[in-house]
UniProtKB/TrEMBL annotation:
Transmembrane segments: none annotated. InterPro entries: F-box-like_dom_sf, FBX25/32. Substrate recognition component of a SCF (SKP1-CUL1-F-box protein) E3 ubiquitin-protein ligase complex which mediates the ubiquitination and subsequent proteasomal degradation of target proteins. Probably recognizes and binds to phosphorylated target proteins during skeletal muscle atrophy. Recognizes TERF1. GO terms for cellular component: cytoplasm; nucleus; SCF ubiquitin ligase complex. Pathway: Protein modification; protein ubiquitination. This is F-box only protein 32. GO terms for biological process: protein ubiquitination. Part of the SCF (SKP1-CUL1-F-box) E3 ubiquitin-protein ligase complex SCF(FBXO32) formed of CUL1, SKP1, RBX1 and FBXO32. It comes from Leptosomus discolor.
């Protein structure tokens, strides 16, 4: 009898273990499919307890496939700006997993810049913003403002310093190509190209390349259009600066204005919120919308709009 009871007990344990393994396997498969297939997130209406428990900034950050977005030139600046806004004020809103994901994406951004040597200044500014924020937050560790061990965050800060050093060590070499250069083009074309630059610092840097470009980069009309592009007439009227000749000094006004007001942001591609089903996704991403014309229901969100969705 004891032998039979033991066999029965072992048999029951085996059945339970087998069922548990089968259930775990099914759950794992479901999670993997769910993670890879759904690259959108439903944003709840209103500031409800349900929304606070599920639809958080960290959850959205994990679900919206930012790792792939940084490889798309149309989305790169958008993601970098979003990383900067989170670094300034939203780090403590991220869960531990979301914070880890944030650092992983940041590392991929840095590696991309090191490889293609583009957007160096943009990423330097992002890293400096993040490092400054972390210095402030780590000093307040007693108030539990950061998720995770303090040593882990110190290690991450060391990584940021290392990335900054790598960016500072980049040596951009002049290409060996001996064909037509920018200065070989007619002056009207050179000026037209300069008008495409939306950052005054890029215009100043371009003017340092050659004496002829220096003259063009000081063009008053060029700086006037730059001011009018980024700022309203009312903002401009409040910051008028006259030159020695009694004319408006648009270049000085531009750099004064950017210290006082945010510049206009423009992106090739943005996250979009469907007004019909309240699903947040990248443009072109399929989502289960019941509207007859889903394309007409989408509203583009700026990085700040994205952050504001999760403030409640």
């Amino acid at each position: 009898d004891d032998h039979n009871k033991e066999n029965l007990f072992n048999s029951l344990n085996y059945d339970v273990a087998a069922k548990k393994r089968k259930k775990d396997l099914l759950n794992n498969k479901t999670k993997i499919q769910y993670f890879h297939q759904e690259k959108w997130i439903y944003v709840h209406k209103g500031s409800t307890k349900e929304r606070h428990g599920y639809c958080t900034l960290g959850e959205a950050f994990n679900r919206l496939d930012f790792s792939s977005a940084i490889l798309d030139s149309r989305r790169f600046n958008y993601v970098v700006r979003l990383l900067e806004l989170i670094a300034k004020s939203q780090l403590t809103s991220l869960s531990g997993i979301a914070q880890k994901n944030y650092m992983n994406i940041l590392e991929k951004v840095v590696q991309k810049v090191l490889e293609d040597q583009q957007n160096i200044r943009l990423i330097r500014e992002l890293l400096q913003t993040l490092y400054t924020s972390l210095c402030t937050l780590v000093q307040r560790v007693g108030k539990s403002v950061l998720v995770g061990n303090i040593n882990m965050w110190v290690h991450r800060m060391e990584s940021i310093l290392h990335w900054q050093q790598q960016l500072n060590n980049i040596q951009i070499t002049r290409p060996a190509f001996k064909g037509t250069t920018l200065t070989d083009l007619p002056l009207c074309l050179q000026l037209n190209i300069m008008q495409r630059l939306s950052d005054g610092r890029d215009l100043v840097s371009l003017g340092q390349v050659a004496p002829d470009l220096q003259v063009l980069s000081e063009d008053r009309l060029l700086w006037k259009k730059l001011c009018q592009y980024h700022f309203t007439d009312r903002q401009i009227r409040k910051r008028l600066i006259l030159s020695d000749k009694g004319q408006l000094d648009w270049k000085k006004m531009y750099f004064k204005l950017i210290r006082c007001y945010p510049r206009k942001e423009q992106y090739g591609d943005t996250l979009q919120l469907c007004r019909h089903c309240h699903i947040l996704s990248w443009k072109g991403t399929d989502h289960p919308c019941t509207a007859n014309n889903p394309e007409t229901c989408s509203t583009s969100l700026s990085p700040q709009d994205f952050i504001n969705l999760f403030r409640f």
